[in-house]
Amino acid sequence: MKISVGNLLSAISHLIDIAQGRREHAPKVTYISLQLSNLLGLKPVEKKKIYYAAFFHDIGITVADKKFITSHIDPNLAKNHCLLGYELLQKLPLDKDIAEFVKYHHEFYNGSGAFGYDHLVTPFASQIINLADQIDITLDFSKPYYQQIEEITNWVLKKKGVLFNPIIAEVFLELAQTDKFWLDLYNPHLRHIVMALSPEDEVYFDIEQMLKFSEAISLLIDNKSPFTHIHSQGVSQTVYTIAKTMELDSEMSNKLKIAGYLHDIGKMVVPNEILNKEGKLTKEEFYIIKSHPYYTKLILSQITAFKDDIANWAGNHHERADSSGYPERLGKDDLSLLDRIVGICDVYQALIEDRPYRRGLPQSTALSIISDMVKNGLFLEEEFLLLKRAVS
Predict the structure, then answer these.
(1) Which domain holds residue 149?
(2) 215: domain CATH number?
(3) Does some domain include residue 98?
(4) For residue 204, is it within any domain?
(5) Minimal CA–CA distance to 9: which of 85, 87, 122?
(6) Up-side HSE of residue 154: CA atoms within 13 Å toward CB?
(7) Is 81 part of any domain?
(8) Where is each HD-GYP domain found (predicted)?
(9) Rounded to an integer, what distance in angstroms lies between the CA atom of residue 64 and that of residue 51?
(10) Rounded to whole angstroms, how far apart are CA atoms 83 and 338?
């Protein structure tokens, strides 16, 4: 299995945009960064790094609180997501410069940014991404671009040599005079435009590299709550053990392991105060929680290599054999055994973990509860027997 990193980062960035209530932020920052890089005459190898770094620049933002602007202008919040993004990207089989560019994308020319580094220390690529980032959060996309060009260009002029590198600022001012730049930026299909600009020598992950990426993403997701910090790892390991018990081949077993790691990726759209709430959820809060498998399947289905299997296994983990689950109310005739395995492993892992409202349950108690679910038709005996063999 080969996974296009460009395809992967486009899907993940889409989820981040949904979580932050922002339309196509990552593609816009990537587009602006690439246009600046072209006018600056950067070499293809540098533009390739900027392409990936710009798409990944906000991967460390995990708080779905709609405070998009605050997360970009508050120095502590900016520093936090830069560090989280850096730590995640360091674990991936990508050029290490990409992680560095992401780490310092909130630095300003005069040293007033997140880490307090000036232009002499901050990578030039990070300075490009920073200007692109600031342009996008400053623009009001509810208004026509031609009503804002003068205001934007005057602001960049004013901040030249203060927030922005003068060389990059001058190139932006040149770019801002072209209608195509603004029309592309406002194009509802900008993501497709940006994907067409992907490097010719595209980076691909093999299945082992994808496992590392999935584990890193799962840690980012699970760390949204102190009660779920090992949840996805636990689900992934149990699913993998079952796959080996079933004597599935290596690729299928690893695909299931990836589904386990990523089954809760949709939780990035759920606010932390709901995930960590100690009391009973309100009806509205429960509907928000129930949306997460929908977003898991939506995002994973955008990754071509996941579309026909991993996206379903991960996205159907709250569906039940008796059609009482969510978000699609699928039943036993719609769900594969592998769908149901991920679902039953998710329930088991949740039962043995601490939650805001209770302590983790003993293994025997958890299996007894799931046995009752089988008797009531939520799961089938087949996956329950496989689970018991895996955890015994």
Answers:
(1) 3-197
(2) 1.10.3210.10
(3) yes
(4) no
(5) 85
(6) 5
(7) yes
(8) 206-392
(9) 25
(10) 36
pLDDT digits (tens, 9 = 90+) for 302-350: 999 999 899 999 999 999 999 999 999 999 999 999 999 999 999 999 9
Which tens digit of pLDDT belongs to each residue from 25-54?
Answer: 999 999 999 999 999 999 999 999 999 999
Provide DSSP, 115-131: S---TTTS-HHHHHHHH
> What's the token pair of residue 173?
């001012």
Query: Residue 332 is inside which H or E element, if any?
Result: none
Confidence of residue 1 (pLDDT cuts 50, 70, 90): confident
Same domain, 244 and 275: yes
Domain count, the chain: 2
Residues 189 and 313 both lie in one domain? no
Are residue 244 and residue 105 in the same domain, yes or no?
Answer: no
CB 339 within 8 A of CB 331: no
Q: Helix axis angle, 381-391 relative to 337-352, nearest 10°? A: 50
Q: Find the helix packing angle between 381-391 and 363-375, rounded to 10°.
A: 170
Residues with Cβ within 8 Å of 171's Cβ and at least 6 positions away in sequence, in order, are: 36, 39, 40
